[in-house]
Each structure stands twice: as C-alpha cells, then as structure tokens.
Amino acid sequence: MPSETSKTAETLPPRDEAPSRTGAPGTAAPGTGAPGPSASVPREAGAAVGHAKDVGDIEAGLDALQTTVAPTTSRWAKAWRAVYPPVLAITLLLAVWQTLVWLEVQPIYNLPGPEQVWTAVTRAAESGTLWQALGTSLERGILGFLAAVAIGTPLGVVVARVRWVRVSFGPIITGLQVLPSVAWVPAGIIWFGLSDATVYFVILMGAVPSIINGIVSGVDQVPPLYRRVGQVLGAGRFQMIKDVILPAAFPGYLAGLKQGWAFSWRSLMAAEIIAVGGGIGFGLGAFLQQGRELSDMALVFTAILLILVVGMVIELLFFAPVEKTMLRRRGLAPETSGAASTGKGSGWLLRRRELAAAAFGR
C-alpha cells in the first residue's frame, strides 16, 4: 500500500501547477489564493487603464500636431521682421516711381518725382494747410465712424436675430452696401446744404450697411451648441446676446468694422471733393480738389499720399492690435500656439489637457 500511494502521488501533477496546465476556471492564481473570476478583474482594469493611457497619448500627439513651436527670438529681431517688409516695399515703389520720372514717361509737371512731392509736402506743412486738412478729415472720419458703429451694431443684432426683419430688409441693406457712397452726395447737398451734416450723412450711408452685414455674418457662424449651452445655464435674451452671441460673432463683427471704416473714409473723401464751399471746412478732399484746380500734380500727389497714410495708420494702430488680441485669446496666433505646445499660452488647451489627464488617471 505505501508503494501504491507513492506511485499515485508521482503521477498526479502538483497542486500549484494544475491551474497553469489545465487553465480551468475557478482555480486560484499561483501564489495568490484568490479565486479565478476575481483574478480576472484586475487584469481587465489594467487593460482599460492601458487603453485610456493610449488614447491620452494619441490626443496629446494630435494636440502637438495642431500646434507649432514658436522659436524664441529677441525683441529686436521681432521688430526687424515687422519693419523690413513694408520698408522694402516702399523702397521698391519709390525706385519704380523715380525710374518712370527719369524715363520721362510723362512731362515733369504731369508726373513729378519724389523730390518734388516732398517739397510740396514741406511747403504745405509750413503754411499750416496740411495740418488743417488732416485734422478736419480725421475728426470727421472718426466721429462719423463711431456714429456708424453706434447705429449699425444694434441694427445688426436685430437683423441677425429677428427673422422677418432679416427677410424683409436684408436685401435692401446689401444693396445699400453695394451702392457707391458718392451717389448720396447730391442728395445730401439738397437736403442739408453745404454743411458738415452732408458729410456725416454720406459717411453713415456708406458705413452702416457694412457693419450690419458684418454682424449678421458673424452671428450666422456661431455654432448652435453655444446657444444651447447658454440656455442650459439660464441665460436670458439680453444676456445670451451680450455674453454668448456677440463674443462668438466677434471675428465677423471685426471684419464688418474694418470694412465700415474703409467705406467711411472713402465716403468722406467723396463728400469733401464734391461738396466744397459753404459751411464745409477744409479737409483732405478739398485739399485734393485744390491741387486739381491749380493743375499742381505735386499737390495732388501730396493729398493722395496723406489719404493713404491715414488709412494705413488707422489699420496698424487700431484694427491690427485688436485682431491680434482676438487671435491670441482664441489660440490662433502663431506665438500662442507655440506657447501652448511648450505648456504656456492657450488656457483652453491647457485645461483640456488637465481634464484629459484627470480622466485617464495620468
């Protein structure tokens, strides 16, 4: 009997090795003493955590692909990169202009060179005519544009939000935007006479439709999800417009403002050129008209350059910084994207990564 028992023990597999050989359910894992079904739970949880980490890695990789690493440069290098392209363009234009003068494409009294125009600029500045015309046109242009913004913004919100108003007046507003502003000058002279009211009337008729259409275009591009979120958070009608719709529609609104300023400035020049005399002051349009009447092309070029410079300065000092700030806050500026990829900059992207890390247990 002892010998048979020992043979039977030799033929049976060890207790600890049986689960690994047979793989039967319900047996304990080696060295744990826990039943099989409960041992599979940690393995499944570990697989889920590993999968979540893989998803997190994929999302982090996609975020890295969507961002660009902005190289660290000094302020002088940034200033030089911002200055030299326009300086180079102006230099090329002056060179072409002077070359045409040397080639005598037109007589010198019809096509004065940069030197002659600069002489006319200094002469007008010394006499005070330049500063008078520049100050009058700037005052009219800025005040007229601000009035157009004050009128066009609420009208644009109404047109964008009230369907029957949009269907009824939308085509008329678009037609007014296409209509040349100079067409309003004779009507303004008949209605208001030769006064500043005529100038401001022409400015408003040129700028207000552009601002309205800019707001309508921006509101149309607001995702419907934003409105639903505002409703869920309990935003009222006014709060929905102020805190949800207008901030989301700001890119289109800004484009409408830029176009409205362009229309305001062009309308102002048209009114000042045509409506001369009476109670209308001496602006850049009248300065240009004076050069034409005197057949002084140097004076004409001076007025044209002043009109051009004012438009460029307003763009660089007001609209460009506002647009840059908007892009930076929305994570669309190059330096913001680069900072986001290095852990700085876009708060939205950082919050998204933190939430993803917390969700995936990283």
UniProtKB/TrEMBL annotation:
Query: According to its record, what are the GO cellular component terms?
Result: plasma membrane
Q: Where are the transmembrane segments?
A: 83-103, 141-160, 172-193, 199-219, 268-288, 300-320
InterPro entries hit by this protein: MetI-like, MetI-like_sf
The superkingdom listed in its UniProt entry is Bacteria
Q: Give the primary localization class.
A: membrane
| Cited Gene3D superfamilies | MetI-like
GO terms of biological process kind: transmembrane transport
- Outline the extent of the ABC transmembrane type-1 domain: 134-318
* Compartments it resides in: Cell membrane
Q: Topology versus the membrane, per the UniProt entry?
A: Multi-pass membrane protein
What the record says about family reads: Belongs to the binding-protein-dependent transport system permease family.
What name goes with this protein? ABC transporter permease
Q: Which organism is it from?
A: Oerskovia douganii
